[in-house]
Amino acid sequence: MNLKWKQNAITVAGGNEQGNELNQLASPIGIFIDDEKTIYIADYVNHRIVGWKFNSENGHVIVGENDQLRFPVDVVFDKQNNSLIICDRENQRVIRWFHQNQIKQQQILISDIDCYCLAIDRNGFIYVSDVSNNEVRLWKEGDDNGRIVAGGNGNGYDLNQLNTPTFIFIDEDFSLYISDSQNHRVMKWKKDAKEGIVVAGGNGNGNSLKQLSGPSGVIVDHLGQIYVADSENDRVMRWCEGNEEGEIVVGGNGKGSESDQLDRPADLSFDAEENLYVADHMNGRVQKFLIDI
């Protein structure tokens, strides 16, 4: 049975116009929800990572004071190491941030990379999309260069190529899903594959149910269904692998700031109850769409 969500969202972070107060966000991009439903947000224009606890009216700045970050794009929580991993975009690096027992410690994991988004697999390996080199690399602790696991064959439209890969997702089988944003498609690269397969979009830039426009956030549920933030169409789509077209899950009611609208949705996440969270980029908020039982 396909899950459905209520079409009117609840704003759970930001939503008080764009700004840098603790109850505001400025063009949020990457989000991560932990087991306690704390939302970690890459608050892009504010150069900070914000933690927003469940049912709180304000967030709290975790990283980003004293010019520590420049336009952070993505954040994931690493359970194994009880730390945050952050794509610090304009500083061209990926860092690990420990914040516990009043101790704040930063560790640079990867330098000199045009990183956009991150994923971490069950072994603790880190995947990073590199938009300049049109590739995704896998990094193990202590690696100098990582290794290419998708793309890396120049900018293009062939199945072994990518064009501005942004958001990524890694499943339990170590298959990698990539929002190939300027090719307006989502690619799936199986472990050790030399090329990917198109699992969403790939029919040019457009707004039909066969098309995507600048896809961003991508997540996959336990049934293998693919959810895509179809950013420039202001909607979230669901695609089943092998299907020619997707379906609109939320949004798709025009660009706007009403509770059933989105404006350039960026990242997506589920919580344990399968409620759907959307980083509503241009509205400066995170929206929670409740599961419709």
Structural class by sheet pairing and helices = mainly beta
Shape: globular
Strand order of the largest sheet: 1-24-23-22
How much of the sequence is in beta strands? Answer: over 45%
What is the strand tally?
24
Radius of gyration: 18 Å
Defining key terms:
Neuraminidase, NHL repeat containing protein, 293 residues, 6-blade_b-propeller_TolB-like, glycoprotein, 24 strands, signal, four-stranded antiparallel beta sheet, 0% helix, mainly beta, NHL_repeat
Commentary on this structure:
The chain has 293 residues and is an all-beta fold. It has one domain: Neuraminidase (6 Propeller), CATH 2.120.10.30. Helices cover 0% and strands 46% of the residues. It contains no helices and 24 strands. β16 and β17 (197-201) form a beta hairpin. It is globular and about 50 Å long. The protein starts with 9 loop residues before the first strand and ends with a strand. 46% of the residues are buried.
